[in-house]
Amino acid sequence: MFPNLELVKMVADIENPTLFSHDLKSADILFLDLIVSGGNINTLADFIADIPILIITSAISRWQYPEFIKNREHFALQKPISLQMFQSCIEKAIQP
Length: 96
Known about the structure:
Blueprint: H1 21-25, E1 29-32, H2 45-48, E2 53-58, H3 67-70, E3 75-78, H4 83-94
Parallel strand pairs: 1-2, 2-3
């Protein structure tokens, strides 16, 4: 449905971000859930700093976001995410 998007990698455990840091460095968009297994979400701050588009896909409210998210431009998709919400977010995120 979204020919301009290519899923490069899914990571279920962030215990060792260096294992997927190469994929993060080459990403244009990162979809990030703030509830993660295997580590603290704050350990990702340096790894995702240069990713141009950050989309938070989480059920937690914006005021609970970690500071490294609050302090940078990002988009939010509140769970549960519908196809219409996803499409609208993508359109906003990739508009020139």
